[in-house]
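job 3f2a | input accepted
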Amino acid sequence: MQTAFEQYFHSLQGKRIIVLGLGVSNRPLVRLLLQHGCNVTGCDRTEREKLDSEVLELEQLGAVLRVGEDYLENLQGDLVFRTPGMHPGNPALVMLKNGGAKITSEMEMFFELCPCQIIAVTGSDGKTTTTTLVSELLKAEGKKVWLGGNIGTPLLSSIPQMTEDDYAVVELSSFQLMDMERSAGRCVVTNLAPNHLDVHKDMQEYIDAKKNIFRYQDGHGLLIVNADNEITASMKGNGTTWYFSRQKSVENGVFCRDGVIYRANNGAEQKIMDASEILLPGVHNIENYMAAIAVTAGLVSDASIRSVAKTFGGVQHRIELVRVKDGVRFYNDSIASSPSRTISGLRSFPERVILIAGGYDKHIPYDVLGPEICAHVKKLFLTGATAQKIYDAVVNSCGYEQGKPEIVMMDDFAETVRAAAQSAQHGDVVLLSPASASFDRFKNFEVRGNFFKQLVMEL
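job 3f2a | predicted structure (459 res):
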């Protein structure tokens, strides 16, 4: 007897299938489709001579490749898998849809076929750490967990190994959510602030995309939102809505008061642990823990929560301690691709830091970053496309005094890192927290962070 997974792929045989984008998430999808005898055309903007061996291997397995600048021209198909980075309003997608093609995505198919309970996390900041914490809490309770999504691991091909007793914990970006018509049974919105406005037509479209994470929940769904964030505080799910807050008590959810984290259920409070037990630095990580605790309510014991809090050392590229050299601590916070994320990083340190910032311009405002840099940075090194924007935000903020902080603008990333390191003295913190995406110079934030770590280790 065929499983639902096998039945689905069998139903695709004979259809003209187009996979738009041959990045990390879609390559396993193409392989699956080919393994099940499907007719697949893989489309990607990358010129053929720049394709890596893994993509060329897909062609050898039977996929037809359409690559280069005209990869979207004159496409015809029955089923189209959209890459997360492509806006649903792209003219080529609209034309395909008008021609009768069904538009879907790797993540939408995963939601349709996954046999186990899905817990999903989205937000502007804190997504990856919160998603990872949910996974760690469930594993500490002895449950089998599949961690993936926007966090970097496609899960579709793992479905045959999943059972209904497992848990799939997925991070979802606004790009993945834009045209999703399915929601997880349990989900978190960590916070919302202007982000990715280079892709979304406006802030409202960005917010609406995020809401898809809970829009299709039924009355049994659980939604966890940040009560301290103006946008998320007003969100309400179709089932149960709980809140987490670092600034006030909540009637239902998880909150922190006087350094103690509590769980509240209809006003009845129960202590979970002291916030000081959390190994990860920064108040934003207290918020991440509270979100993870709330969404796993009834699934994880307080003993497991405390155990993870005391031992979990964090995720790469998120205020990651790289090295201590001559009394100087070097931290990699390459994940910080927005001002709000960098602000959280700056607030994690009691001392003023030496900050390296700047990168790809997502067309978001930087005004809020200026006062925070003035309050938390002793020397600022700027590089990349947003360097001037960040410079203007700092010197035009009310807290700026001439030379405080000292600002250095440089073109080359490696030279910027070396100059920041050379300026540091015993006891200083050098922090890479760009407040910008990486795409002006690097494929993604991981590549940027790894290059930073390489430079630091070579000092």
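job 3f2a | The first strand starts at residue 16 and ends at 20.
job 3f2a | closed
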